[in-house]
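Bug #77: duplicate submission created two jobs. Keeping one. Sequence:
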Amino acid sequence: MKAEDVAKFLEDNPAFFEQYADLLAQIYVPHPHGGRAIPLSERQILSLRDKTRAVESKLAELIQFGEENDAIGEKVHRLALALLAAGDLSAVVTALRYHLREDFAVPHVALRLWRGSNGLEEDQRVSEELRSYAARLQHPYCGASNGSEAIAWFGEAAPHVRSCALMPLRERGEPFGLLALGAEDAERFYPEMGTLYLERIGDMASAALARFL
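Kept job's structure:
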């Protein structure tokens, strides 16, 4: 018989070892971590322990992710309250910059608006190419700076920015600005990262700014 035949027989006859219970005590298998041979029952216990450790490790990982998401959710909530409380366009911009820097620890924040910003610092010329790029973005861009026009908005820090996130600001689907986040850490914003919270921040910023444009 081949090994596959034995395995298939045992699978099809689960009562086999009930009829031959003494046989279990006579079967010895290699220790999973090397060394001596051990009884099959001990091998099963070791296997269950390994599976338990794997489940515990996965559970700890899920708990950590949950705690991190709770912390981010609380920060997003504080930002939402600050944007709601802002009484004019300047206050919205100030709240946005403050919370992104202090709460989310984003070292560099830049914002450009190309519609009705009433002479604010953020009301500066933006190329038609960048406006078209913002209109094409379906999700926030995360990755290397790659010499994007938006990186120059970070001023003196621009040469040191290694990664960035770009979020289009929209009203009724039409872009009216771009929010840029930058970091010296090349891994702070990377292409494979989740963008759910960035999208929510972009949506909130869009709604808050659009009230005064």
